[in-house]
Specification:
Length: 250
């Protein structure tokens, strides 16, 4: 019986995906790619054995445990989790919330209250909401769609930078979890695959540049935090405390 894995389909997971595809045989491991909210959904429904879990979903993930220090995070600017606006923060009346990420939606609400001191109307967005970001209506956009938006709008407010200024800590968007029944031998193989992908990150960056014509080296080397460490674990606990759902992060 194969082990099912779900991971986020964004550029920032490329090293992990590479390691999984290179080191874990397809006869034993089945990989699917989804946006963060969908990853959370299939994990909450217990449909996969291992997954990249959005941090906001952790308190609800009964029967799963964190199995790795590898993660998707940032220590300051992240560039792909941003609020875009044509007006300053003080003039924003409505913020469209990206449907692809519950974690980022909660994060922007924390920053609005604790850092920016604004109280906008929050509006859940549909798939075409970016075109509605105009005038005094701003929008939260996450993932690869954000790369080209900074040139489109007058103001960009980076949520990773905002969290760093508020707390002095990095931010962890997602971490790897597994069902409690997954054997330790499988977890070990899985972590070895993630490490393999990280070890070959430079080669991946070169390949991406050849394929797309875009140099993503700064993003993958200096923006994305791939291991959480003690500061990352502290940040996760603090974030969940803000959500009034404190848990101990191992």
């Amino acid at each position: 019986m194969s082990t099912s894995i779900v991971a986020v389909s964004y550029l920032n997971t490329t090293p992990f995906i590479y390691g999984i595809q290179q080191k874990l045989p397809v006869s034993e491991f089945k990989l699917s790619l989804e946006h963060p909210a969908k990853c959370a959904s299939v994990l909450l429904e217990g449909k996969v054995d291992i997954g990249l879990a959005p941090i906001a979903a952790l308190p609800e993930l009964e029967g799963y445990q964190i199995i790795s220090d590898y993660c998707i995070g940032c220590d300051g600017l992240v560039e792909t989790v941003c609020l875009y606006s044509d007006v300053p923060l003080s003039e924003i009346q409505t913020i469209y919330l990206d449907y692809q990420s519950k974690t980022s939606v909660n994060l922007i609400k924390i920053l609005a209250k604790e850092l920016w001191k604004i109280n906008p109307n929050w509006k859940d967005a549909d798939t075409n909401y970016i075109d509605n970001i105009t005038g005094k209506s701003a929008g939260l956009v996450i993932g690869d769609r954000a790369f080209d938006l900074a040139e489109r709008y007058r103001y960009t407010f980076d949520l990773g930078d905002g969290w760093k200024r508020l707390t002095g800590l990095p931010f962890v968007f997602a971490c790897w979890v597994a069902k409690t029944g997954v054997p330790n031998s499988v977890k070990t193989k899985f972590n070895e695959a993630l490490k393999y992908g990280m070890d070959y990150r430079e080669d991946l960056i070169s390949e991406l540049k050849l394929e797309s014509g875009v140099d993503y080296s700064n993003y993958l080397k200096n923006r994305i935090l791939f291991t959480k460490g003690d500061k990352g674990r502290e940040a996760i606990s603090l974030f969940l405390n803000y959500l009034a759902t404190p848990i101990i992060i191992s």
